[in-house]
Amino acid sequence: MQDVLGIDGAHVPRDRLEIAPERFLVHDLTHPLRLDRHFDLVLALEVAEHLPPQCASLFVESLVRLGPLVLFSAAIPFQGGLHHLNEQWPTYWAERFAARGYAPIDCIRPRVWENERVQWWYAQNLLLYARYDALAANPALHGAYHACAGRPLNLVHPRRYLSAADLRTIGPRRLLAALPLAFWHSIRRRLDTKPALRQMR
Questions:
Q1: I want to staple 199 with a disulfide (CB 3.0 to 4.6 A). Which of 39, 65, 79, 132 is the partner?
Q2: Distance, CA of 44 to chain centre
Q3: Per residue in 37-94, pLDDT tens?
Q4: Which residues touch 197 (CB under 8 Å, ≥6 apart)?
Q5: pLDDT of 138-183, one tens digit each?
């Protein structure tokens, strides 16, 4: 039986949840999160950049308290988006996970990098963090960890690069004309965002 819990702020519209409302917990993620249970997998996708820099380590601490595996992505510098307060390279987050005994496994990005159905920010930023004892106990994780050892964590997806390059070359008039459309794309992306934190057991 699947056991899922979604966690996010009070701003999330209940009618947009893709899980049962009773499986959703309202919590201010700038504060510590402590539950009396653990999960097999913790997801935090494009959430961390919305929290103030002083909350970065606290947020990672909240995540690792919940389980041995954390699927994590966060906006890189100049990625752009609404209410981004702390855009950082993956190495910044990897240091905070490492301080808590978690190692990055870059096993997903190569699988989705050229998949047009996957939004570029996920293809660019997704890393799996595994607690060291979970690595030792799971041969598949252990193999994936060593297979991707040495790969750079800080990457920019071609789709992001080309969109940024286009904005620099279209000129002021075309840039101003493009702003309303870009604004609505950002709003739509924000509304399409799933519950910020989802755990499975």
A1: 39
A2: 5
A3: 999 999 999 999 999 999 999 999 999 999 999 999 999 998 988 899 999 999 999 9
A4: 6, 7, 8, 29, 42, 43, 44, 47, 63
A5: 999 999 999 988 889 999 999 888 887 765 555 555 545 555 555 5
SS3 category, 114? coil
CA pair distance 104, 107, nearest whole angstrom: 9
Query: Tokens 């988006």 belong to which residue?
Result: 81
Report how far residue 129's alpha carbon sits from residue 186's, in angstroms, rounded to the nearest whole number. 28
Three-state DSSP at 24 gives strand
Identity of the amino acid at 47: V
Strands 69-73 and 41-45: parallel
- Residues forming beta bridges with residue 71, ordered by sequence position: 43, 128
Distance from C-alpha of 5 to C-alpha of 20, rounded to nearest angstrom: 9
33 in Cβ contact with 39 (< 8 Å): no
Beta bridge partners of 131: 102
Domains belonging to the chain, first-starting first, are: 4-155+194-200 (3.40.50)
Residue 110 is given by DSSP the state: H
